[in-house]
């Protein structure tokens, strides 16, 4: 297909099934058939799950490029996220009957399998002695992004639990998932021989920034006291900017 074929305008192609126009008024339908506002908590949760899956896909691409061995596990996680979405999109109270195929990890097997992967990866990592910052290469950084989206997703699922929706098995898996992404990110950095940036209060503000701010503040104070003309102040500010 050439670029001219997808540029829009009049087309004789049949209507795509990708859009239905049913949600144009701001509502959507759950697996249960209930139509709710797209701002409903259940759709907030489903949106976060979808966003997380996209982030994991991007992280998986970087992991495959790096050859760090995480790709297959990330693929399995993406599949689990689809199943989690099915569970969430058919909300029931605890003990309620869900549609066939919409119950996630009822026996906890997937969560235990993920714990085993975490144990294996973490056993090969150096012990943590400092807070670390997201760093260590593209694969590692994207896994950290997936970790933070997982935490937000977990919060949206907790909100569903608070209104009586059964998400117990989902919460257990998602809670473990953020731990997986943390150790996976560290593994990715170590695999590529990249250093993990460690938090340091002393390195929080670069020295040149502190110097420039102090110099500028001093100049402004002198001007306010009537000891310096505006022209000289401008010259000092230009010099500070140039030195940066």
The largest pleated sheet is described as: 2 strands, antiparallel
Mean of all residue-level pLDDT scores: 83
What string gives the helices and strands in order? EEHHHHHHH
Percent helix range: 55-70%
Which overall shape is indicated by the principal axes computed on the Cα atoms? globular
Given helix and strand content, the structural type is mainly alpha
Portion in beta strands: under 5%
* Poorly predicted sequence stretches spanning 5 or more consecutive residues: 232-238, 240-244
* Spatial order of strands in the largest sheet: 1-2
Structural Rg:
26 Å
Distance between the termini: 50 Å
Number of strands: 2
In terms of quaternary structure, the protein is single chain
Number of helices: 7
Task: Characterise the protein shown here.
The protein has 244 residues and is mainly α. It is built from seven helices and two strands; from the N terminus they run ββααααααα. A two-stranded antiparallel ribbon has the order 1-2. Helix 3 (109-123) packs parallel to helix 5 and helix 6 (207-224) packs antiparallel against helix 7 (230-243).
């Amino acid at each position: 297909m050439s670029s001219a074929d997808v540029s829009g305008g009049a087309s004789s192609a049949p209507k795509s099934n990708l859009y239905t126009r049913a949600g144009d008024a701001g509502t959507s339908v759950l697996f249960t058939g209930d139509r709710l506002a797209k701002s409903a908590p259940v759709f907030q949760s489903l949106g976060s799950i979808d966003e997380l899956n996209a982030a994991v896909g991007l992280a998986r691409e970087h992991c495959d490029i790096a050859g760090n061995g995480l790709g297959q596990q990330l693929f399995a996680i993406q599949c689990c996220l689809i199943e989690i979405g099915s569970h969430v999109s058919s909300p029931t109270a605890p003990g309620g009957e869900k549609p066939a195929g919409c119950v996630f990890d009822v026996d906890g097997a997937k969560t235990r399998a993920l714990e085993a992967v975490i144990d294996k990866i973490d056993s090969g990592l150096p012990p943590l002695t400092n807070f670390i910052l997201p760093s260590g290469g593209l694969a590692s950084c994207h896994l950290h992004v997936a970790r933070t989206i997982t935490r937000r997703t977990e919060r949206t699922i907790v909100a569903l639990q608070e209104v009586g929706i059964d998400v117990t098995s989902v919460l257990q898996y998602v809670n473990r998932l953020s731990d997986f992404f943390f150790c996976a990110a560290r593994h990715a950095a170590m695999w590529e021989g990249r250093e993990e940036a460690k938090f340091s209060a002393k390195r929080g503000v670069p020295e040149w920034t502190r110097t420039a701010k102090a110099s500028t503040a001093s100049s402004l104070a002198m001007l306010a006291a009537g000891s310096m003309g505006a022209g000289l102040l401008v010259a000092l500010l230009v010099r500070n900017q140039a030195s940066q």
